[in-house]
Predict the structure.
Amino acid sequence: MASFSSTASADPTNPLNALNIFNTLSSEAQHAPSSGIIGMVEYARGKEGLIPLWVGEGCLPTPDFICDAAAKALKAGETFYTHQRGIPELRQSIARYHQRLYDRPFNPERFFVTGSGMQAIQLAVRMVAGVGDEVVLPSPAWPNLKAAVGVASATAVEVPLDFASDGWRLDLDALFGACTSKTKALFINSPSNPTGWTASLDDLKAILAFARQKNIWIIADEIYTRFYYDDARTNAPSFYEIARDDDKILFVNSFSKNWAMTGWRVGWLSAPPAVADVIGNLIQYSTSGVAPFMQRAAIAALEDGETFVTEQINRARVGRDKLLDRLQGNNILRYAPPAGAFYFFFGVEGEDDGLMLAKRLADEANVGLAPGFAFGQSGSAFMRLCFATHPDQMDLAIDRLNLWLSKE
């Protein structure tokens, strides 16, 4: 009878054996990058009294009315396989939610429930890109966007945003110039994580016109659309305001940010109904659908959660205003007021290594930030701070930052 060898030569902890095992993996798996954000979390997680502002979530737990809906569904026995595209009631709720935001009817058949916004991104990328293909995206960008393209065997082409003290800007000529015959999609995250850059409606019109002309897809990450700080509008400009139902746009979204459900891992994908079967199949072959009791919680979030969303937005606005007010006039800081999302992306004059700077701030100021290199080379001199936190925590973090900066 065959048995596993217990000799030293078969020791999986042996570096040579480990390398041999690693080299048998697919190229996509081997080159999936480590998260620079998680790396910073691991570096400073155990520091006593540290204020953790490095990840993209607020400080509030999921509201009781959402949790209660999940518990009720569990008690009712909703623990079996379910609709791979999402239960009809949730898809209808998502359609009604969009109708409230954009004041026009939406077909529930264009919405698909996914196991997080991240899975929605992965599905979108896999639908439109593969070996030898390219996806063009503005940068600095959330690292998972580029990684999702790489895992799909395609190549992410980054177009750096231009930094100015009055706001980050996207050069549309540079964006369009980066597209080649290999380009299958433009990935537009607006409002942006981490910079807060937000495309104007004119920007979106130009991007959509270009995509139509070149017959390429748009992957629209509008997860932060509710977190927008222009008083002239309730929500950030959206492709939904200008697109036809048959436009080649894949919208990705999530329950994580608006309804404090980051740990639930529930999102949705919006797409032309013509590709419904493809999306359903991809969901089937990955997760076979989101747990039905979690979908009941998502319905509660959409139908009864508007007051809570408003609270989340107000909390983020307060954090943003505190930062901009109390850091104003500090000449060694480099930053642009974020137009949307809930991140403050900043650097320090004379410092071009955001990772070392983030480590120093963790060690010397006891404030945990995400290093900018995690968001692409164009962000390497910056750091990201999430300001969607408790006002008292925000005050204390600013006190510590100001004290540290005063010693520089």
Notes: The first strand starts at residue 51 and ends at 52. The first helix runs from residue 15 to 23.
